[in-house]
Design a protein that fits this description.
Shape: globular
Strand content: under 5%
Distance between the termini: 39 Å
Structural class: mainly alpha
Largest sheet: none
Length: 288
């Protein structure tokens, strides 16, 4: 990431720590920007400031080795959010109001998908497991990472998946604008958003390249280091952070595999959950 972006995100983190970065429950699809152009975006050396406690809270070497599995929620799960079923005159009225149109259903599904992303990123567990300080920069970096995971999986469904991913991206973009505003940026907001958009595109192109079959084994850890942890622009993690970076790389690779095993219905309805890091932590602490 360019130095001015690093300084800007540092300023946002400071502002955010003063004002709080709580995420609201309302999501709206308002932007018409397209994430698809990221396929031709230049790879950027995006760096986001880290904040690492001196001692890890878990044994990172034991995390994320389990066999990948589908992330789809079972039919009986209380966490599922299913389409409402109405009958009679109410259903007829809603049909007339295009409640059951493909676009309306896609927007509702995209809202649920993004809520799954936010649920993983805003909870303390992910910061505790990976020894991250919760600042605007780290939260934004994790948002982009999990957005990439979702959009990559949706693209596997072809044109339909790309179109659905566009709705998810628009909701994400509106949420980021709210987060920047809550951090205290009221002037030149559009400029901030353009800079963050460049970071988004640069990050997802770098992630895509790092998981290609021909990529080197250290490509993904190095990209994670630059995008999530590094504060000085270095391209490779230092020895102290190496175990944490390797653990996050295993987490990312496992989520890529798990999402590939997750069926289309779950992805388009949002009825899936990322690997619950809190459970992983509890299992590990219980095995000590």
């Amino acid at each position: 990431m360019l130095p001015r972006w690093s300084r800007a995100l540092t300023q946002l983190s400071r502002l955010g720590s003063q004002r709080g970065l709580n995420h609201g429950n309302d999501f709206y699809a308002i932007s018409r920007q397209s994430y698809a152009k990221a396929a031709v975006a230049p790879v950027m050396a995006d760096t986001l400031e880290k904040g690492l406690p001196t001692e890890p809270v878990v044994n990172l070497d034991k995390l994320f080795w389990s066999k990948p599995c589908s992330l789809a929620l079972p039919p009986e799960s209380p966490l599922r959010i299913d389409e409402p079923e109405y009958e009679g005159i109410k259903r007829v009225f809603l049909k007339l109001m295009l409640f059951y149109s493909k676009q309306s259903k896609s927007i509702r599904g995209a809202n649920v998908v993004y809520k799954r992303v936010v649920s993983q990123v805003d909870k303390p567990a992910i910061y505790e497991v990976f020894n991250l300080e919760k600042t605007f920069k780290t939260t934004y970096a994790l948002l982009v990472l999990h957005m990439w995971l979702c959009l990559r999986r949706l693209k596997q469904e072809g044109k339909e998946g790309v179109e659905f991913g566009q709705y998810v991206y628009e909701i994400y973009n509106h949420d980021v604008e709210l987060r920047v505003s809550r951090a205290g940026v009221n002037l030149l907001l559009s400029k901030w958003m353009k800079d963050l958009e460049k970071i988004f595109y640069g990050n997802i192109v770098a992630y895509d390249a790092a998981v290609l079959p021909e990529a080197r084994l250290d490509d993904l850890p190095n990209v994670i280091w630059r995008n999530v942890f590094s504060d000085d622009g270095s391209s490779k993690p230092d020895e102290a952070a190496s175990r944490t970076i390797q653990a996050m790389a295993r987490y990312v690779r496992r989520e890529v595999s798990c999402l590939s095993l997750t069926d289309k219905e779950a992805m388009f309805s949002g009825n899936f959950m990322f690997t619950p890091l809190k459970i992983e932590k509890a299992k590990l602490e219980g095995s000590r």
